[in-house]
């Protein structure tokens, strides 16, 4: 089962894709990568609801995205890596 991850970069860019590999410098290889553009008019969207295609929680324009396919992401520009589908709590195997 392939797991998608969300990667955020310096400057606000964000991509979602399937993790295929990484190295010790945290350079990542993602397949089926999609890049999302950050909304520039976040205040206007929230106040006037001018662009309903903007996710108000993240501020990202959901319709303005581009498919990148197979991508190599440079580790020095990455500020956040998280699961795309969220997380689930598991039992601590070390707790008695």
TrEMBL record:
Residue ranges of every copy of the Sm domain listed in the record: 1-87
Molecular function via GO: poly(U) RNA binding; U2 snRNA binding
Gene Ontology CC terms: catalytic step 2 spliceosome; Lsm1-7-Pat1 complex; nucleolus; P-body; sno(s)RNA-containing ribonucleoprotein complex; U12-type spliceosomal complex; U2-type prespliceosome; U4/U6 x U5 tri-snRNP complex
Organism superkingdom: Eukaryota
Keyword terms of this UniProt record: mRNA processing, mRNA splicing, Nucleus, Ribonucleoprotein, RNA-binding, Spliceosome
Pfam families: LSM (PF01423)
Subcellular location: Nucleus
Family statement drawn from the similarity comment of this UniProt entry: Belongs to the snRNP Sm proteins family.
Record-given protein name: Sm domain-containing protein
């Amino acid at each position: 089962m392939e797991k998608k991850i969300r990667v955020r970069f310096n400057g606000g860019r964000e991509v979602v894709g399937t993790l295929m590999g990484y190295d010790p410098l945290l350079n990542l290889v993602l397949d089926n990568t999609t890049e999302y553009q950050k909304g520039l008019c976040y205040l206007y969207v929230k106040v006037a609801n001018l662009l309903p295609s903007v996710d108000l929680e993240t501020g990202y324009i959901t319709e303005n995205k581009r498919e990148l396919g197979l991508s190599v992401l440079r580790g020095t520009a990455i500020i956040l890596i998280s699961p795309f589908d969220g997380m689930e709590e598991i039992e601590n195997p070390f707790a008695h």
